[in-house]
Amino acid sequence: SQTIHQWPATLVQPVGSPLSLECTVEGTSNPNLYWYRQAAGRGLQLLFYSVGIGQISSEVPQNLSASRPQDRQFILSSKKLLLSDSGFYLCAWSDTVAGVQYFGPGTRLTVT
Amino acid sequence: AQSVTQLDSHVSVSEGTPVLLRCNYSSSYSPSLFWYVQHPNKGLQLLLKYTSAATLVKGINGFEAEFKKSETSFHLTKPSAHMSDAAEYFCVVSARAGGGNKLTFGTGTQLKVEL
Q: Do A43 and B108 touch (CB under 8 A)?
């Protein structure tokens, strides 16, 4: 069966520091991968999605970037964090046509 | 373009009574629709999905939803609420985008279950 992992589970970082969040999927090949952010009391906002290695689509202009160095690895990064980057970050995967996305456990990021 | 409106931000029910979480959607094409549940500080779990087959969809934990095209609705129901159902619920519409699929989320409904 497929599983999706995210780490770290929680992170507290000062403003201006770099960020790297990692997501990996097991048990499937060539998944579509997604990064979402969930701010307190709000719905989910799609940040990036990838349909293959090195292929990244950005949904909103922001202080973040994403990379997909391997088929089942998706990384969310920032060079300098802002207070507004605080939130709950969720990674998800789907196969190419089913439409269903399966979510990881999330990373709680607090920028201080 | 597609959108989802969850009509109630908070719903409170007593344990053992029915649950109704309302969702209306807008989509240019025949949509795929989903309900996800999120417990505090957890990822999202798929409850059920509609993908143009039967209009009444049964999901996990006794939940079901009915797709009504004429009303552009996809309301989530459960006959009898349990304390463990307390969570946030998201109605979601899906559309194909660039080889993948893009989900548009509603703003969520917080379900509270009281004794």
A: yes
